[in-house]
Amino acid sequence: MHNHYVIEDAFNSEAQHARETLFTTGNGYLGTRGVFEEGYPGEQAMTLIHGLFDDAPIFHTELANAPNWVHLVVVIGEERFRMERGEILGYHRELDLATGVLRRTVRWRSPAGHTVDLAFERFASLADAHILGVRCRLTSVDYAGLVELRAGLPGFVENTGLLHWEWRDQYRLGTGGVVLELQTRGSRQALGMATALQVEGATLTVQDCDWQPTVVAAAEIAPGQTLVADKLVAIYTGRDVPDVRAAVSYKLETAVAAGYEALRAASDAAWATEWESADVTIEGDDEADLALRYSLFQLLIAAPRNDDRVSIPAKALSGWGYRGHVFWDTEIFMLPFFTLARPDLARNMLHYRYHTLPGARRKARESGYEGAMYAWESAATGDETTPRWVPGPEGGLIRIWCGDIELHITSDVAYAVIQYWRATGDDAFMRDYGAEILLDTARFWGSRAEWHAESERYEINDVIGPDEYHDHVNNSAYTNRMAVWNLQTALEILDWLKVQAPTRAAELEGALDLTPSRLEHWRDVIARMVVPHDPETGLIEQFDGFWSLKSVNLADYEPRTKSLQFLLGIEETQGYQILKQPDVLMLLYLLESEYDTETIKRNWDYYTPRTDLTYGSSLGPGIQAALAARQGDVEAAYGHFIHSARTDLQDVRGNSHEGIHAATAGGVWQAVIFGFGGIRITEAGLTATPRLPQGWTRLRFRLHYHGKPVDFDLRP
Ligand code: BGC
After folding, report:
1. Contact 81 CB / ligand 1 (< 6 Å)
2. Alpha-carbon distance 538 to 602, whole Å?
3. Residue 601, class by beta-carbon neighbours within 10 Å (0-12 exposed, 13-18 middle, 19+ buried)?
4. In angstroms, rounded to a whole number, what is the distance separating the alpha carbons of residues 663 and 185?
5. Could you identify the atom of ligand 1 that is nearest to the CA of residue 327?
6. Angle at 632 between CA 674 and CA 675, to 5 degrees
7. Domains recognised in the chain with CATH numbers
8. How far does residue 619's CA lie from ligand 1's centre (Å)?
9. Beta-bridge mates of residue 79
10. What's the pTM?
11. pLDDT tens track for 485-544
């Protein structure tokens, strides 16, 4: 593998929170922010476990922050190692993307003048999701005396002021380890963690502090001597096993028997296999090569492996942002990578949408519609979890309408189902799960379309399209056109099902009440839905009245570091032709084959200068890049691509502290594969129309089509 280290050469306490996000590690079961083992004032230590939701004010539900398993305190004589005291004489941190290992070396002189070298590394095993490890090598430079290493399970952890945990139990194990058992207060989910410390030549004791059982190793050290401490952790929740106590005890015992090195080797081997399918190599542009690999790493560590009732949240498992909720970010931005590189993982996440159909049905019913209306923000059950009111930047409350009227998520889920099926040919999935999603989402659109007798057209009014700078709009082109697409596709799938699996077809016809008159109604909606556009110019109007809004030259606001919405105000922005992110262009991107190149070009020219690409949504630039490259404007494409690729590596938006921009990571992959590689999924297979940026000498990657790997090796 090419370039695979993300490096930090000096500790910067100002950038601490963004770096914690940047150095997030994980294994598809949990994610852990890159905090330091010994702790640091003001840190945002966080371990988020898929599916471990608990009730929360405002956000309805959120992932409960689990105890910080990397906790390891080093005491030199009387002094505790901490980077904000004493002197840092050397510092290096690196995330090895090839193995998911995070390392840090520090040469530290204590306030009393003792110098030590510390080398930490940690991994969340990809071979066994329930195993975590931290290794600390301590070498004395000039110190002689006692050192102590304290490995704890700090259970008293909060989510920004909210304590989700109830203490259940803590105890020692015969093997010298300790166990902590907690339970979430609202959702009553159990969490068990066990830890052991292995240090050759040290005396081990247990400190049974309330909420924080700790194993302590003490040893004498002399200059030139090294002590190696291995902290092993086992973790289970009540979602995984009925008895977390038995599970963690047993897992810790097997981990201790295997030892740190063997456990790491198993994880490294799993990572090697992982990258065989997922890696993309860009030759001639090291920055792009590393940035893309970093994006894929973050997607891979967030993707659930053995659990199909969870999916990747907007900030993955790396920060407070959006509280672990799942958006269209997953289906439209991240899933294409999984569908083509790791279809097994894509399938898991589509199953999540299948299992949350009951929540989507409840939402439709409660809103007065039929079928399945997916939640704009989704969590454990699929019920709507978008906050209705949030505190504004200048005090006061802001009403968030997305949960009520940002409807397009429903067809976005359907779109991902079809894309997965086209690429994989997974008919069993379509028969057993996908078809039901497509048909029930169609049922929703059929009931949501409003008939207007005067114009003899169907309309969908009072919505929010992808561009959230405008709300309560009528006839959003994206929403209406994708609704039509959803209805058309459902009819096609029903025909397919009748031939391929007549029993299942009949079952769904009965369960979803797919009567001939309902299907006739769908056809009528398809034929007579309004999609605002100008046949003369080929321009699609983003929503009714968009063309009569005030126009503005975005360049007049440069230089700036804030979004246009922030600068102009939420209400004021509504009156302008300014987009938060591609909207009509997003539609043309998703349904590319249904539009001619001239239409795409005209709309591109119209909407691009009106889109707040730098400070609007981070979802925008990757897609803008892919579209530009597909039209042959490689230079413009590269600009958007590299901006997108730097989002978290350089914290270009200044909000990385809230968590990884996971949709952006997926967009970076799409810019490269669908944009510069020009990959299309066709009936006959995958095709490539490469248009490589200046300087790129080679682009290599592996995709999967209908169960078989296909290797691409593209040159300029
Ligand atoms: C974007 C949405 C996105 C959400 C979560 C918003 O700012 O406008 O498109 O789904 O963030 O990432």
Report:
1. no
2. 7
3. middle
4. 31
5. 10
6. 10
7. 5-276 (2.70.98.40)
8. 7
9. 76
10. 0.98
11. 999 999 999 999 999 999 999 999 999 999 999 999 999 999 999 999 999 999 999 999
